[in-house]
Protein backbone atom coordinates (compact mmCIF):
# COMPACT_ATOMS: atom_id res chain seq x y z
CA UNK A 1 0.00 0.00 0.00
CA UNK A 2 2.85 2.39 0.89
CA UNK A 3 4.56 1.77 -2.46
CA UNK A 4 1.25 2.36 -4.26
CA UNK A 5 0.74 5.65 -2.47
CA UNK A 6 4.25 6.76 -3.36
CA UNK A 7 3.91 5.84 -7.01
CA UNK A 8 0.41 7.31 -7.44
CA UNK A 9 1.60 10.92 -8.01
CA UNK A 10 4.06 9.68 -10.62
CA UNK A 11 1.35 7.79 -12.50
CA UNK A 12 -0.97 10.79 -12.28
CA UNK A 13 1.73 13.08 -13.67
CA UNK A 14 2.44 10.56 -16.43
CA UNK A 15 -1.27 10.46 -17.26
CA UNK A 16 -1.47 14.24 -17.50
CA UNK A 17 1.53 14.29 -19.83
CA UNK A 18 -0.03 11.67 -22.09
CA UNK A 19 -3.35 13.51 -22.12
CA UNK A 20 -1.64 16.78 -22.97
CA UNK A 21 0.30 15.15 -25.77
CA UNK A 22 -2.86 13.60 -27.15
CA UNK A 23 -4.69 16.95 -27.17
CA UNK A 24 -1.73 18.73 -28.76
CA UNK A 25 -1.39 16.00 -31.36
CA UNK A 26 -5.08 16.25 -32.22
CA UNK A 27 -4.93 20.04 -32.54
CA UNK A 28 -1.83 20.02 -34.73
CA UNK A 29 -3.06 16.96 -36.69
CA UNK A 30 0.33 15.40 -36.07
CA UNK A 31 -0.95 11.89 -36.61
CA UNK A 32 -3.41 12.56 -39.41
CA UNK A 33 -2.87 12.57 -43.15
CA UNK A 34 -2.94 16.12 -44.50
CA UNK A 35 -4.80 16.10 -47.82
CA UNK A 36 -5.34 19.70 -48.96
CA UNK A 37 -7.58 20.69 -51.81
CA UNK A 38 -4.77 21.31 -54.29
CA UNK A 39 -6.80 23.26 -56.83
CA UNK A 40 -8.27 25.55 -54.18
CA UNK A 41 -4.91 26.10 -52.55
CA UNK A 42 -3.39 27.07 -55.91
CA UNK A 43 -6.27 29.50 -56.56
CA UNK A 44 -5.93 31.14 -53.17
CA UNK A 45 -2.17 31.62 -53.50
CA UNK A 46 -2.50 32.88 -57.09
CA UNK A 47 -4.88 35.74 -56.24
CA UNK A 48 -3.58 39.08 -57.49
CA UNK A 49 -6.08 41.58 -56.16
CA UNK A 50 -7.84 43.73 -58.74
CA UNK A 51 -8.13 47.23 -57.35
CA UNK A 52 -8.20 50.48 -59.32
CA UNK A 53 -4.78 51.00 -60.95
CA UNK A 54 -2.87 49.07 -58.31
CA UNK A 55 0.51 47.70 -59.31
CA UNK A 56 1.14 44.20 -57.96
CA UNK A 57 4.55 42.88 -56.92
CA UNK A 58 5.37 39.45 -55.56
CA UNK A 59 7.52 39.78 -52.46
CA UNK A 60 9.33 37.25 -50.27
CA UNK A 61 7.16 36.63 -47.26
CA UNK A 62 8.43 37.05 -43.72
CA UNK A 63 5.49 35.24 -42.14
CA UNK A 64 6.55 32.63 -39.55
CA UNK A 65 5.54 29.19 -40.80
CA UNK A 66 5.11 25.88 -39.09
CA UNK A 67 5.17 22.42 -40.60
CA UNK A 68 2.82 21.63 -43.47
CA UNK A 69 1.93 25.26 -44.20
CA UNK A 70 2.80 27.62 -47.08
CA UNK A 71 2.55 31.39 -47.59
CA UNK A 72 2.40 33.85 -50.47
CA UNK A 73 2.80 37.64 -50.19
CA UNK A 74 2.13 40.46 -52.66
CA UNK A 75 2.59 44.19 -52.39
CA UNK A 76 0.08 46.65 -53.88
CA UNK A 77 0.34 50.33 -54.71
CA UNK A 78 -2.42 52.43 -56.26
CA UNK A 79 -1.27 55.93 -57.20
CA UNK A 80 -4.77 57.14 -58.03
CA UNK A 81 -6.20 55.93 -54.69
CA UNK A 82 -3.05 56.54 -52.60
CA UNK A 83 -3.22 53.02 -51.20
CA UNK A 84 -0.09 51.09 -50.22
CA UNK A 85 -0.63 47.60 -48.84
CA UNK A 86 0.66 44.07 -48.58
CA UNK A 87 -1.43 40.91 -48.50
CA UNK A 88 -0.23 37.52 -47.31
CA UNK A 89 -2.19 34.28 -47.43
CA UNK A 90 -1.17 31.22 -45.45
CA UNK A 91 -2.64 27.75 -45.82
CA UNK A 92 -2.05 24.39 -44.24
CA UNK A 93 -3.03 22.28 -41.26
CA UNK A 94 -5.19 24.19 -38.76
CA UNK A 95 -2.81 23.62 -35.87
CA UNK A 96 -0.09 25.48 -37.76
CA UNK A 97 -2.13 28.19 -39.48
CA UNK A 98 -4.25 29.15 -36.48
CA UNK A 99 -1.25 30.33 -34.42
CA UNK A 100 1.45 33.01 -34.78
CA UNK A 101 -0.93 35.98 -34.93
CA UNK A 102 0.47 39.50 -35.57
CA UNK A 103 -0.07 40.66 -31.98
CA UNK A 104 2.60 38.12 -31.05
CA UNK A 105 4.80 38.04 -34.16
CA UNK A 106 5.14 41.79 -34.76
CA UNK A 107 5.93 42.59 -31.14
CA UNK A 108 8.57 39.87 -31.28
CA UNK A 109 10.36 41.64 -34.15
CA UNK A 110 10.68 45.08 -32.63
CA UNK A 111 7.24 46.58 -33.22
CA UNK A 112 5.18 48.16 -30.49
CA UNK A 113 1.44 47.50 -30.61
CA UNK A 114 -0.33 50.85 -30.20
CA UNK A 115 -3.90 49.66 -30.69
CA UNK A 116 -5.86 46.42 -30.50
CA UNK A 117 -6.29 43.67 -31.24
CA UNK A 118 -9.93 44.55 -31.86
CA UNK A 119 -12.53 42.60 -33.78
CA UNK A 120 -14.10 44.46 -36.72
CA UNK A 121 -16.16 43.54 -39.75
CA UNK A 122 -16.81 44.80 -43.25
CA UNK A 123 -19.61 44.21 -45.70
CA UNK A 124 -18.32 42.89 -48.99
CA UNK A 125 -19.75 43.83 -52.42
CA UNK A 126 -21.92 40.68 -52.46
CA UNK A 127 -23.55 41.68 -49.17
CA UNK A 128 -21.77 39.06 -47.06
CA UNK A 129 -19.65 40.09 -44.11
CA UNK A 130 -16.03 39.40 -43.22
CA UNK A 131 -15.00 39.42 -39.57
CA UNK A 132 -11.37 40.11 -38.73
CA UNK A 133 -8.95 41.31 -36.07
CA UNK A 134 -7.13 44.63 -36.47
CA UNK A 135 -4.14 46.05 -34.60
CA UNK A 136 -1.82 49.01 -35.11
CA UNK A 137 1.97 48.77 -34.78
CA UNK A 138 4.93 51.09 -34.93
CA UNK A 139 8.69 50.59 -35.05
CA UNK A 140 11.06 53.45 -34.37
CA UNK A 141 14.19 53.48 -36.51
CA UNK A 142 17.17 55.81 -36.62
CA UNK A 143 15.62 58.22 -39.13
CA UNK A 144 11.93 57.31 -39.25
CA UNK A 145 8.98 55.65 -37.56
CA UNK A 146 7.25 52.85 -39.45
CA UNK A 147 3.52 52.61 -38.72
CA UNK A 148 1.33 49.75 -39.88
CA UNK A 149 -2.25 48.61 -39.53
CA UNK A 150 -2.61 44.83 -39.70
CA UNK A 151 -5.84 42.91 -40.20
CA UNK A 152 -6.11 39.12 -40.05
CA UNK A 153 -8.82 36.48 -40.35
CA UNK A 154 -9.26 32.76 -41.02
CA UNK A 155 -11.52 30.63 -43.15
CA UNK A 156 -12.11 26.92 -43.62
CA UNK A 157 -15.38 27.24 -45.52
CA UNK A 158 -15.17 30.51 -47.47
CA UNK A 159 -16.47 32.76 -44.66
CA UNK A 160 -13.85 35.02 -43.07
CA UNK A 161 -14.01 34.97 -39.29
CA UNK A 162 -12.00 36.03 -36.22
CA UNK A 163 -12.76 33.65 -33.35
CA UNK A 164 -11.17 34.13 -29.95
CA UNK A 165 -9.68 30.65 -29.96
CA UNK A 166 -8.95 29.87 -33.61
CA UNK A 167 -6.87 26.83 -32.73
CA UNK A 168 -9.89 25.10 -31.21
CA UNK A 169 -12.48 26.62 -33.54
CA UNK A 170 -10.83 25.05 -36.59
CA UNK A 171 -9.39 21.95 -34.94
CA UNK A 172 -11.48 19.57 -37.07
CA UNK A 173 -11.06 21.45 -40.36
CA UNK A 174 -9.23 19.59 -43.11
CA UNK A 175 -7.37 22.75 -44.18
CA UNK A 176 -7.23 26.33 -42.93
CA UNK A 177 -6.47 29.66 -44.61
CA UNK A 178 -5.33 32.85 -42.91
CA UNK A 179 -5.28 36.26 -44.57
CA UNK A 180 -3.13 39.24 -43.54
CA UNK A 181 -3.90 42.70 -44.93
CA UNK A 182 -1.25 45.27 -43.97
CA UNK A 183 -1.61 48.98 -44.79
CA UNK A 184 0.62 51.95 -44.06
CA UNK A 185 -0.37 54.47 -41.40
CA UNK A 186 0.45 58.17 -41.26
CA UNK A 187 1.43 59.86 -38.04
CA UNK A 188 -1.50 61.22 -36.04
CA UNK A 189 -1.06 64.94 -35.33
CA UNK A 190 -3.21 64.64 -32.20
CA UNK A 191 -2.08 61.23 -31.01
CA UNK A 192 -5.54 59.78 -31.59
CA UNK A 193 -6.05 56.69 -33.70
CA UNK A 194 -6.29 57.54 -37.39
CA UNK A 195 -9.31 56.20 -39.25
CA UNK A 196 -8.78 54.60 -42.65
CA UNK A 197 -9.55 56.67 -45.72
CA UNK A 198 -12.35 55.34 -47.90
CA UNK A 199 -9.98 53.95 -50.60
CA UNK A 200 -8.21 51.88 -47.94
CA UNK A 201 -11.51 50.61 -46.57
CA UNK A 202 -12.55 49.68 -50.11
CA UNK A 203 -9.25 47.86 -50.64
CA UNK A 204 -9.89 45.81 -47.49
CA UNK A 205 -13.44 44.96 -48.60
CA UNK A 206 -12.25 43.95 -52.06
CA UNK A 207 -9.45 41.82 -50.62
CA UNK A 208 -11.71 39.74 -48.41
CA UNK A 209 -14.27 39.46 -51.22
CA UNK A 210 -11.84 38.37 -53.93
CA UNK A 211 -10.18 35.76 -51.73
CA UNK A 212 -13.63 34.44 -50.78
CA UNK A 213 -14.44 34.21 -54.48
CA UNK A 214 -11.21 32.33 -55.11
CA UNK A 215 -12.09 29.91 -52.32
CA UNK A 216 -15.46 29.23 -53.94
CA UNK A 217 -13.99 29.26 -57.46
CA UNK A 218 -16.47 32.01 -58.35
CA UNK A 219 -15.85 34.75 -60.95
CA UNK A 220 -13.96 37.72 -59.52
CA UNK A 221 -16.03 40.88 -59.23
CA UNK A 222 -14.59 44.32 -58.60
CA UNK A 223 -16.05 47.49 -57.17
CA UNK A 224 -16.88 50.04 -59.87
Residue-averaged pLDDT: 83
Strand content: 25-35%
**Portion of residues within helices:** 25-40%
Widest beta sheet: strand line-up:
1-2-3-7-6-5-4
What is the CA–CA distance across the termini? 80 Å
Topology:
Blueprint lengths: L1 H27 L9 H9 L8 E5 L9 E10 L4 E10 L1 H4 L4 H4 L6 E12 L5 E12 L4 E11 L10 H4 L6 E9 L13 H19 L8
Antiparallel strand pairs: 1-2, 2-3, 3-7, 4-5, 5-6, 6-7
Task: Describe, in plain words, how this protein is organized in 3D.
The chain is of the alpha+beta class and 224 residues long. The protein folds into two domains: 32 residues; 183 residues, no CATH class. 30% of the residues lie in helices and 31% in strands. The chain has a seven-stranded antiparallel β-sheet. Strand 4 and strand 5 form a beta hairpin. 29% of the residues are buried. About 10% of the residues have low confidence.
